[in-house]
TrEMBL record, chain A:
Residues 1-139 form the eRF1/Pelota-like N-terminal domain. Its main location: cytoplasm. GO terms for biological process: nonfunctional rRNA decay; nuclear-transcribed mRNA catabolic process, no-go decay; nuclear-transcribed mRNA catabolic process, non-stop decay; ribosome disassembly; RNA surveillance. InterPro entries: eFR1_2_sf, eRF1_2, eRF1_3, eRF1_Pelota-like_N, Pelota/DOM34_N, Pelota_N, Ribosomal_eL30-like_sf, TF_pelota. The keyword GTP-binding does not apply. It is found in: Cytoplasm. This is Protein DOM34 homolog. SUPFAM superfamilies: Dom34/Pelota N-terminal domain-like, L30e-like, Translational machinery components. Its cofactor is a divalent metal cation. Keywords: Cytoplasm, Metal-binding. It comes from Endocarpon pusillum.
Automatic annotation (TrEMBL), chain B:
PROSITE patterns: G_TR_1, G_TR_2. It comes from Endocarpon pusillum. Residues 220-232, 257-267 have a biased composition (Basic and acidic residues). Residues 14-37, 180-205, 217-280, 337-356 are annotated as: Disordered. One of its GO terms (cellular component) is Dom34-Hbs1 complex. PANTHER family: TRANSLATION FACTOR (PTHR23115). This is Elongation factor 1 alpha-like protein. Gene3D superfamilies: P-loop containing nucleotide triphosphate hydrolases, Translation factors. NCBIfam families: small_GTP (TIGR00231). Keywords: Cytoplasm, GTP-binding, Hydrolase, Mitochondrion, Nucleotide-binding, Protein biosynthesis, Translation regulation. Belongs to the TRAFAC class translation factor GTPase superfamily. Classic translation factor GTPase family. EF-Tu/EF-1A subfamily.
Length: 415, 799
């Protein structure tokens, strides 16, 4: 996303104008835009006019620049579309204040986002988290993308892994006959596997084709084939054989540049992707991406939790208590938080988490990592209540267990 | 109108013939009542509740009546109670209901006393009883008859099968039931009367034929709405014709005239020439209608009808449990008269369902095929047959410990594999440079399996010893295929753990899948384990090595929860064939004089299966078997029983299908019970079949497994547990989910809560956890295995 104009006051109020270039920018916009913000974007609105003399109505569409006060967001990660609905905040020729409108943000069209301080809900404006997200969104660093196929016999999940998201593009589920005793029965199994491979490869090529249409870079992305046992290897063999047997150009080019990498996973379900990304083959390719860092961080956290030495804690109440004690500080203290907490509809809740982040950063001097909830690691974190912390020193017991129970159940409620 | 009736008669005859044949076949099962244990229990509980609801005012109602009512209202207590109250409120009508108990002669006396003037009327007294409070009772007889007949027949003809016309139906049913009761009385008299009837021989035989036909169609008409009208007409008509002569003896002479008239009708119907006045009767144009009218007259004594039979036709229209009718059973019950009304009622709903299903199938365009259930009592059948013990065992162990080879050798030695096939395998294996794998190829049939020399999926094979028929489930040892191994172990009764005794291989195995597999089979509830210490030839049959392994394994297995008396050790060599079927001939192995592997397997230990429970079967595989049986599923029945013609429902999709054929251990069968390995051929559409997957649960439609999206389980942790994604395994079912909450860590001894809401559960502790599934799955109480990242992290059972 390109930053067109940035005008943020020291107190946090102000506006930025952004120019989204690719589908993933919509994901950034989704994180930046929050309810009660003002959003200005080009829109098409149908205007109905009534003729004064006869009372007959006619409607026509007009292109206008509309400013709305955001009420809710609807993000479709598969299509990379963001719909922002709210009420018109600035009057113009065609619309009145208070009328409802849903803005569909489009690629290659500027939009302006204004955040206010001391709105009627005590909005914080461009707080530290929002600023960080803005930095991230406008970072022109080249993004690494991989395509991963996590499969087992009869099931394949084709996903795109980007810096910030894991997108499940398509799931292929087929029945593959099991081997049966008796002569020639395994032929059915072989036939079933062959059919399964064909379907998966067809689907995969279609997806990759679509990806290449979007960005030229996609021509160099690696394709990971992960499975337990020998399914992935078998699939690679099938793909190579087919590349030689048929004249499919895309497939041939993929095979030629050795785009396929076979890795091991323990199951064909989507969450096994996490294992895939741990594998050395992938680590080399994704070395310094945000995703790799996040995955590493979560693995580190889980490792500490296993040890149960009192330095790894999760859950909103526990982490807040730990921060209160100053245990998330200099020298290894890490606050891990998913960005979905900052997308909360409720301003007060959002403020609660922003304050926690600021406190760790500024007062304790600890490290704060905001994980994408659309990644596998972020999902694992969400399973823990969306927030976790690695402490600088061990704490044996945090809080009252009864209170914890409430905290986990109402994790997202205002304090 | 008359045309319609004639048609009906013809139809009825067809039916009659059909069921006649059936009766011959099935007379053995006549006494079985179709009520399951659950039903009986439910009925009993509901009866008590209904009795309470009825209160003091209705103590006169018998349990049977309540149960009948409950049955017909599907245990809806409030409906049953209101029905009973309605029935029993006028004490007078209550009396009427008790009348059926009266004998024919009593009835006859009663008739005389009450209805002396109506000489032409047949059994008028009962009609009077029924309409005792009707203001129009004194209308002359001929008019009475007119009034009743007109509404009755059109209704029967046009609406008889309707399941919606409850009010009308009940009247029809009332007539029908009453008529049946009357026939019952007549039957009693018939035995003696047939001898004195004096009919010509040929007529008698014709009659008896007809009578048998009638007997099949007569009683089921309640459950068979579509057919009931024919039954009603023809049955009453024909029965009359037979019953009249005997009745003549029992009835007072004053009614002799009416009797004669009907005898004539009878002869008309049967085409026999017996009476002189036949000619006049024939001359009348509406002979048929007349016959029917008279028969209706006969049916009039409504009061004698047991009241509880009323709602049957309406209710029976709803359920489709069993596909094909077996009216004979019911008929025979009534025939014997020894059955209590409750037990006869127990039979009815099932049959009703069948008959309707049948008619539905006949209507269906897509599936013209009808599957006739033989309506066996499967459990009785099962008990009848003397059979060998049957046992499934799973072969487990670390990868490359020689599981498949050992089993291949065992099958070869037992001649379950013929010499030529084995020779083929040997040649092929040599060709691929894997000569030592020849025996494994008996079970490793897959292309990939042979190419890589690794078992990937469960292979099954059968063999028999003198006492037991076994099914081998050869599990893969590779860690990636533990899900397959779990699927196989879930079908087993005991386990054979194969251990590689060769130097350092045992130690490697113990760290690997030897341990995991043993833990898994234990947590799946398998109690007996036979440890085959394999590849003894590589250690030169070292006794020390064997003892060392035995000690280590014994210590491990006992801590895993196996009882020491259920663990046995056999040193053997799969490749050489020592101590498998025959004792080792190697001089170094002389120290071992225990049982061989086969002898050890063959210690009979009959396993009890939940035969009485509702049907449960996890699908092992779904496949196209042959052109005749395109839609086949296989698996082991976990609970309950099934037979050809049964309807089943497959969860989680809820797709219903009928069972077309059953193969038990590759032999065709009409039924199967829990514990048997079956292949079922289903009657189902292609589209539906595609939605059935491995791991789905096949159930009885009346008691399906519910789909759950989250459950609480008590588990033993093998690894650290925290909120995390994992795989849930239940037999062949294998679905992604996640631990959403760690509820508590529990005390190992008494299950008391040690710590609420732990952050992490440590290995070896017992915890209560909440698991959420990505998509709803048919999981009910039972053992589950939780795996994450290729390792078993916990095992336990649902709470």
């Amino acid at each position: 996303m390109r930053l067109v104009k940035r005008h943020i006051e020291p107190d946090g109020s102000g506006s930025v104008t952004l120019y989204p270039e690719e589908p993933e920018d919509m994901w950034h916009a989704h994180n930046l835009i929050r309810p009660t913000d003002l959003l200005t974007a080009p829109a098409i609105r149908r205007v109905t006019s009534e003729s004064a003399s006869t009372g007959s109505t006619s409607s026509h569409r007009v292109h206008v620049n509309l400013t709305i006060r955001v009420k809710s967001l609807d993000f479709d990660p598969q299509a990379g579309q963001l719909h922002v609905s709210g009420r018109v905040a600035r009057e113009n020729k065609h619309t009145k204040i208070g009328q409802h409108h849903t803005l569909d943000l489009e690629l290659n069209r500027n939009f302006t986002l204004t955040k206010e301080v001391e709105g009627k809900d005590g909005e914080q404006g461009w707080d530290s988290v929002a600023k960080e997200q803005l930095e991230e969104a406008t970072n022109p660093q080249k993004k690494a993308e991989i395509v991963a196929v996590v499969m087992e016999e009869g099931l394949a999940n084709i996903c795109f892994v980007t810096q910030y998201q894991t997108l499940l593009r398509q799931k292929v589920a087929m029945k593959v006959n099991r081997k049966r005793d008796g002569a020639g029965r395994s032929a059915k199994h072989d036939k079933g596997v062959g059919k399964f491979f064909k379907t998966v490869l067809d689907t995969l090529l279609r997806q990759v084709e679509g990806l290449i249409e979007q960005t030229e870079e996609a021509k160099t992305i690696p394709i990971l084939l992960a499975s337990p046992g020998f399914t992935a290897a078998g699939f690679l063999r099938y793909a190579s054989e087919r590349a030689f047997a048929t004249g499919e150009k895309l497939l041939q080019s993929l095979v030629k540049r050795k785009a396929f990498v076979v890795v091991h996973s323990s199951a064909g379900h989507l969450y096994s992707l996490n294992e895939v990304l741990k594998s050395p083959e992938v680590r080399v390719k994704l070395k310094d991406t945000k995703y790799a860092r996040e995955t590493r961080l979560m693995n580190e956290f889980f490792e500490m939790l296993r040890k149960d030495d009192g330095r790894a804690w999760y859950g909103p109440k526990e982490v807040e208590a730990a921060v209160e004690e100053g245990a998330v500080g200099r020298g290894g203290g890490k606050l891990i938080i998913t960005n979905s907490l900052f997308r909360n509809q409720d301003v007060a809740t959002r403020r609660r988490w922003v304050r926690l982040v600021d406190r760790v950063r500024k007062e304790s001097g600890g490290d704060v990592r905001i994980l994408s909830s659309d990644h596998e690691s972020g999902k694992r974190l969400e399973g823990l209540g969306g927030i976790a912390a690695i402490l600088t020193y061990p704490i044996v017991d945090l809080g009252d267990p009864e209170e914890e129970q409430v905290a986990v159940v109402n994790g997202n409620d205002p304090p | 109108m008359s045309k319609h009736r004639i048609k009906s008669v013809a139809l009825e005859d067809d039916y009659a013939d059909d069921y006649y044949e059936d009766d011959e076949d099935q007379s053995g099962y006549v006494e079985e009542d179709g009520m399951t244990a659950e039903d009986q229990e439910r009925l009993r509980v509901a009866t008590v509740q209904a009795r309470n609801t009825l209160g003091q005012g209705f103590t006169s109602i018998t349990d049977k009546e309540i149960q009948d009512a409950l049955w017909h209202y599907y245990y809806d207590i409030s409906k049953s109670v209101s029905y009973l109250k309605n029935k029993h409120t006028p004490s007078q009508s209550k009396q009427d209901k008790t009348r059926p108990a009266k004998t024919g002669s009593q009835l006859a006396v009663h008739h005389q006393a009450v209805k002396e003037p109506n000489i032409h009327h047949l059994l008028p007294s009962t009609a009077k009883d029924f309409f005792w409070d009707s203001p129009w009772l004194n209308i002359p007889f001929h008019r009475q008859a007119e009034i009743r007949i007109e509404p009755v027949f059109p209704r029967l003809g046009l609406l008889g099968g309707s399941s919606t016309g409850e009010g009308k139906m009940s009247k029809i049913a009332a007539l029908a039931a009453k008529r049946r009761l009357k026939e019952k009385e007549n039957e009693k008299q018939r035995g003696a009367a047939t001898h004195t009837s004096g009919l010509p021989e040929d007529t008698a035989s014709g009659l008896s034929k007809l009578r048998i036909a009638t007997s099949h169609t007569l009683y089921p008409h309640k459950e068979h709405p579509l057919r009931s009208r024919h039954d009603l007409q023809s049955a009453s008509r024909i029965d009359q014709t037979q019953e009249t002569p005997p009745k003549g003896d029992a009835l007072p002479p004053s009614r002799q005239q009416g009797k004669d008239k009907r005898t004539e009708d009878n002869h008309q119907l049967n085409g026999s020439q017996s009476g002189a006045n036949v000619a006049d009767m024939r001359a009348k144009p509406s002979m048929f209608a007349r016959t029917l009218m008279i028969s209706c007259d006969t049916a009039l004594p409504l009061s004698s009808r047991p009241p509880t039979l009323l709602p049957e036709p309406v209710i029976s229209s709803f359920d489709f449990l069993k596909p094909s009718p077996d009216d004979i059973v019911l008929k025979a019950q009534n025939f014997k008269g020894s059955k209590t009304s409750t037990s006869s009622k127990q039979q009815k709903p099932a049959k009703a369902k069948e008959s309707i299903t049948n008619s539905m199938e006949n209507l269906s365009v897509v599936e013209p095929e009808t599957i006739k259930s033989k309506n066996l009592d499967v459990l009785a059948e099962y008990k009848k047959v003397e059979r060998k013990n049957a046992a499934n065992f799973v072969v487990i162990g670390h990868v490359d410990s020689g599981k498949s080879t050992l089993m291949g050798r065992l099958l070869f030695d037992l001649k379950a594999i013929d010499e030529r096939t084995m020779q083929n395998y040997k040649e092929e294996a040599e060709k691929m440079g894997r000569g030592s794998f020849a025996f494994a190829w008996v079970l490793d049939q897959g292309t990939e399996e042979r190419a890589r020399g690794v078992t990937i999926d469960i292979a099954t094979h059968k063999f028999q010893t003198e006492r037991t028929s076994f099914t081998i489930l050869d599990a893969p040892g590779h860690r990636d295929f533990v899900p397959n191994m779990i699927g196989g172990a879930s079908q087993a009764d005991f386990a054979v753990l194969v251990i590689d005794a060769s130097p350092s291989a045992f130690e490697a195995g113990l760290r690997g899948q030897t341990k995991e597999h043993a833990l898994l089979v234990r947590s799946m509830g398998l109690a007996k384990i036979v440890v085959a210490v394999n590849k003894m030839d590589r250690t030169d049959w070292s006794k020390e090595r064997f003892q060392d392994i035995k000690q280590q394994m014994l210590a491990f297995l006992t801590t895993a929860g196996f009882k020491s008396e259920n663990i046995s050790f056999v040193p053997c060599s799969g490749l050489q064939g020592d101590n498998i079927l025959t004792r080792s001939r190697a001089p170094q192995a002389a120290w071992y004089n225990g049982p061989t592997l086969v002898e050890e397997l063959d210690t009979p230990e009959p396993v009890n299966h939940a035969l009485e429970k509702p049907l449960r079967m996890t699908l092992d595989d779904t496949f196209h078997d042959s052109v005749q049986n395109p839609f086949s599923v296989s698996g082991r029945i976990e609970a309950g029983s099934l037979q050809v013609g049964d309807q089943i429902v497959v969860m989680p999709s809820g797709i219903k299908a009928f069972i077309r054929s059953i193969r038990v251990d590759d032999e065709p069968s009409d039924w199967a019970v829990a514990g048997q390995n079956v292949i079922l051929s289903l009657s189902i559409t292609e589209a539906d079949f595609d939605q059935i997957n491995i791991g789905n649960m096949l159930c009885n439609p009346a008691f399906p497994v519910e789909n759950v999206s989250s459950f609480t389980a008590k588990v033993l942790a093998f690894d650290h547990l925290m909120p995390m994604p994992l795989d849930v395994h239940k037999g062949r079912l294998h679905i992604p989910g996640r631990i959403s909450r760690l509820a508590a860590v529990l005390n190992k001894v008494d299950d008391s809560v040690v710590k609420k809401k732990p952050q992490v559960v440590h290995p070896g502790s017992i915890a209560r956890i909440v698991v959420e599934l990505d998509e709803p799955a048919p999981i009910e109480a039972g053992r589950i295995i939780l795996r994450a990242n290729g390792e078993t992290v916990a095992a336990g059972h649902l709470e």
